[in-house]
Each structure stands twice: as C-alpha cells, then as structure tokens.
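G., before I forget:
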Amino acid sequence: MLDTFVLLSANADAGFLASLNQRLNLGDIIVTVVFFTILMVLLKKFAWGPLMGVMDQRAQLIATEIEQAEASRQESAKLLEEQRALLKEARESAQSIVENAKKQGDTQREELIMAARAEANRMKESATLEIATEKEKAVAAVREEFVSLSILAASKVLGKEISEEDNRALIEETIVKAGEGR
Amino acid sequence: MNHENPQFILFGIGFNPSNILMLFVTCLIVFLIAVASTRRLQMKPTGMQNFMEWVMDFVKGIIKNNMDWKTGGRFHVLGITLIMFVFVANMIGLPFAIVWDDQLWWKSPTADPVITLTLAATVVALTHYYGVKQLGMGKYLKSYFQPIPFLAPLKIIEEFANTLTLGLRLYGNIFAGEILIGLLATLGASSIFGLAGAVIPALAWLGFSVFIGAIQAFIFVMLTMVYMAHKVSTDH
C-alpha cells in the first residue's frame, strides 16, 4: 500500500516534470541565472572592481589636488601680503633714513657755520688785540727813541757828559708829566 | 522562419543547447571586452578604459536619477553587467543566424522569451529582496497598502505586470528585429532581383536594429533601477 503510494507519487513527479518540459525550458532559466551570476561575479572581481578602484583613486587624487591648490593659493596670498607689508616697511624706513640724513645735514651745516663764525670772530679779536699790542710796542719804541734822542741832544747842548742813568730817570718823568698834561 | 529549437533533457530538466551556447558566447564577449579594457588601468585613462569609464558613469547617472547614491551604489555592478550583457546579447544575433538541421543555433539570446523573462524575474526578485533588506519586512509589507489600502490587489498585480512587460518588451523588440532581418536575408538570397531589392532595406534595418538593441539595453537597466528605487526608497 505504502509502496504503491510512493511509486504513484514518483510517477506523478516524473509526469509533472515531463509535462513541464513540454511547456517550459526550465534548464534555460537555470542556465541564464547561473551564467549571469557567474558573469557578474567574475566581472566584479576582474573588471569593475579594479576600474572602480581606479576611478575612486582618481576622484580622491583630484580632491586632494584641489585641496592642495587651495592651500597653496592661500599660502601665496599670505606670502604676498607679507611681502607687501615688508615692502611698505622698507619704504617707510628708507623715507625715515633720508629724512634723518637731511636733518643731520642741516644741523651739521648749522654747526659748521656757527664754528666758522666763531672762528672768524676769534681771529678778528686776536687780530685787534695784536694790533693794539703792536701799537703799544711801537709807541714804547718811539718813546724810547725819543728819550735817547733827547738825551743826546741835551748832552750835545750842555756839552757835558752827564750820567745817562741819572738823566734818563729825570727825562722819563718829564715826558710822563708832559703826556699827562696833554 | 519557424525553426525548431534544439533540445536535450538532463536530470529530467529540459535544456536548449542553442540558448546555452549563445548565453556562453555573450558572457564570453562581455567578459573579454571588460577585462581587455581594464587590463592596464591608468590614472589618465586611454582608449578602451575611457569607454568603460563612460559606461560606468552612464549607469551611475541612471541610478542617480532614481535614488540617492548611498542606496543605489550597491546596484552599480548589477547595472553595468546588465547593460553590457543585454547590449551584447542584442547585437550578437544581428550579423547572422545559423540554422543547422532546421534547428536555430546562432541567434540573440534575448530573442528567446524564456531568457528575457528570466532576467526580468531575477531583477524583480532582487528588488523584493533589497526592499525587505532595506526597509524591513514590516515596512515592505506596509508599502503594498500605501497610499490607499484598497489598491493593494493592484499593487500585487503590478509586480507581475512589471516582470512581464520588462521581459516581453526586450524579447519582442529583439525577436521582431531578427525576424525581419531573416526575411530580408531570405529575400536577398532568393534571386538577383531579390538581392537588389533587399540590400537597402536590410542595411537600414540592421542599423535600426543596432539602435534598438542599444535603446533596449538602456531601457532594461533604466527600468531595473526604477523598480529598485520603488522598493528601496522610503518616500514612495
């Protein structure tokens, strides 16, 4: 009884598959799915995977390049700003140096002029002083000469030799008196 | 034109060796193109790598049109493989068809409804899988009763309709194209007058078939992503 049932069901199964084969290419379905799956797996491993990797790498490379370009652009802008500031500073310091030099030159000129003026004054004064002493010297010399001439004349007039020392004192006194009287 | 399909039965399951052959050839061509174009990967792409990157960006654009990239990124590989596979499958039957013992051996694999419907069903099954995975079973089930609960039967029908239309659209376009190419080829082979009459329409139709093949590959992937977006995004 049981055997018959199993047999019957087996027959039914076989009959079902046979009748299905008449209507449907079950094998084609299986083959299509299997082939397509194998193709997809193989392509993912050998073609799409590496290609996607390269494309991702490229995208990453481009992203980093853009970032680097941005960074270097900012850096160059910063450097430019720095250079500009430095240039401005240099210009300012050059300006101040020129001004200082001008100021220094001015003061130096003033000083030179002052020194020259002082020197001239000093020379003038010393010249005046010298002139005065020379004049006095000349006057003294003339006076002396005059005294000796007077003595000579007096001795000649008196015809006698008087001691020069005694007379000299006398005569000088007289001259001084005469000078005061004048 | 009504050729028979070759068939053999293994483990009680029927196989169509023509389909197996053409699927294998399609997979091989896609694999060779993809691998050849990604052999020497460079930061500055050249030649075939450019083309493959364009395909990737194209599919990426399709996905981004339908959902945000955080959700859609995982479907990228599926999308690229699908578009390449369907395109090559559409093109492969265009240059010639081989009939052996009145059995059609060389054709587009997408000119067989079993294959296109299998692809469509796979895609729809994947949308359900990712829908459950992304939203959780509760939200997934609830989405059938939104926005209005009494439309739930229609929403269930929609899933089957989506599968059917997705598969049959591709099948119909490619199969019709191959039928007409076959007819024009028969006409061209009939006589010298037939050849003279068939050359220009055959060329035109071949060009058109290339166009249709590309468009259908695009539409297939596009709709895949549309259905996927319907299932995985929360705001629909």
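The two ends of chain B are 46 Å apart (CA to CA). Residues 192-232 of chain B form the longest helix (41 residues).

More on Monday.
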